[in-house]
Amino acid sequence: MSGIRAAVIGARGRMGQEAVAALEEAEGIDLVAALGSSDSLSALTEANVEVAVELTVPAVTEQNVAFLVEHGIHAVVGTTGWNQDRLDRLEKTLATSPATGVLIAPNFSIGAVLAMHFAELAAKYFDSAEVLEIHHPNKLDAPSGTAVHTARRIAAARAAAGMGPVPDATESDEGGSRGAVIDGIHVHAIRQRGRVAHEEIQFGSEGEALTIRTDSFHRGAFMPGIVHAVRHIAEHPGLTHGLEHLLDL
Ligand SMILES: NC(=O)C1=CN([C@@H]2O[C@H](COP(=O)(O)OP(=O)(O)OC[C@H]3O[C@@H](n4cnc5c(N)ncnc54)[C@H](OP(=O)(O)O)[C@@H]3O)[C@@H](O)[C@H]2O)C=CC1
Ligand SMILES: O=C(O)C1=N[C@H](C(=O)O)C[C@H](O)C1
């Protein structure tokens, strides 16, 4: 064995099981540890892990990533829940281990990464913009991490173009029908059995609309992005937020 020594944390979850299979298949990567919730993280240092893929739950991801950084293990993180406070704390931890790379990836699917990129490009050309996400009903968080990241990027592109708020005359919003509002962009979450992960970004201006849609029908959709990140995260010390930064976009 002489490839990148990789591990999966959360190996028995829906994503973790797929990631274990994908990394076992990947050339130039040796999967040397696969941890569930009852395993100690010390197994990672005992196995001399170089890159760990973190796919757990929002409640534990921050402490897992802190352990990785403190032990100089590069991290490829798919778990949601990385708000600005958590990202700020992570930056501080990374300052103590400057050669270590951490990728926080709201979505590993190439289609979703491109959809967010296209949405950012389109944002300044349309008066209205809203994000709709649809996921399986076992998902713990709403709105999805991808939808939050998408809304933030649209809002930043609008702000950079000097645009004001989206037009909306709503005076009463009983039960939150207008959805969550992330940096001024409305985000709507649907949970539906039979679905995996889907997002639609809707833009509108007088007389025209643009809809950008991405569908992940199977968790295999996320695996090429994970494998690519495991191969390249060591070249990106510090914090990287979004797989787009590891791609040639
Ligand atoms: N970035 C992306 O592209 C994607 C991100 N996600 C995100 O990834 C995360 C996982 O999703 P999914 O696989 O569907 O969730 P699951 O609920 O299927 O899996 C979560 C796993 O986390 C494990 N876990 C919980 N606590 C710990 C811990 N302390 N140490 C190790 N493992 C732990 C559980 O382990 P056990 O079974 O051993 O109790 C469980 O198997 C979610 O936040 C989801 O939103 C999902 C899809 C794509
Ligand atoms: O929980 C999921 O399934 C997914 N979570 C991520 C998110 O919240 O954006 C990525 C993808 O949408 C699937």
Automatic annotation (TrEMBL):
Cell compartment(s), UniProt: Cytoplasm
Sections of the chain in a coiled coil: none
UniProt-listed InterPro entries: DapB_C, DapB_N, DapB_N_CS, DHDPR_bac, NAD(P)-bd_dom_sf
Key words, A-Z: Amino-acid biosynthesis, Cytoplasm, Diaminopimelate biosynthesis, Lysine biosynthesis, NAD, NADP, Oxidoreductase
E.C. number(s) listed in UniProt: 1.17.1.8
Record-annotated Dihydrodipicolinate reductase N-terminal domain positions: 4-108
Pathway: Amino-acid biosynthesis; L-lysine biosynthesis via DAP pathway; (S)-tetrahydrodipicolinate from L-aspartate: step 4/4
Predominant location: cytoplasm
GO molecular function terms attached to this record: 4-hydroxy-tetrahydrodipicolinate reductase; NAD binding; NADP binding; oxidoreductase activity, acting on CH or CH2 groups, NAD or NADP as acceptor
Signal peptide, first to last residue: none
Domain Dihydrodipicolinate reductase C-terminal: 111-247
Residue sites binding (S)-2,3,4,5-tetrahydrodipicolinate per the record: H136, G145, T146
Catalytic activity: (S)-2,3,4,5-tetrahydrodipicolinate + NAD(+) + H2O = (2S,4S)-4-hydroxy-2,3,4,5-tetrahydrodipicolinate + NADH + H(+); (S)-2,3,4,5-tetrahydrodipicolinate + NADP(+) + H2O = (2S,4S)-4-hydroxy-2,3,4,5-tetrahydrodipicolinate + NADPH + H(+)
Residue numbers binding NAD(+): G10, A11, R12, G13, R14, M15, G78, T79, T80, A105, P106, N107, F108
Gene Ontology cellular-component annotations: cytosol
Active site: H135 (proton donor/acceptor), K139 (proton donor)
PANTHER family: 4-HYDROXY-TETRAHYDRODIPICOLINATE REDUCTASE 1, CHLOROPLASTIC-RELATED (PTHR20836:SF0), DIHYDRODIPICOLINATE REDUCTASE (PTHR20836)
Family designation: Belongs to the DapB family.
Function according to Swiss-Prot or TrEMBL: Catalyzes the conversion of 4-hydroxy-tetrahydrodipicolinate (HTPA) to tetrahydrodipicolinate.
The protein's assembly and partners: Homotetramer.
Name of this chain's protein: 4-hydroxy-tetrahydrodipicolinate reductase
Protein species of origin: Sediminivirga luteola
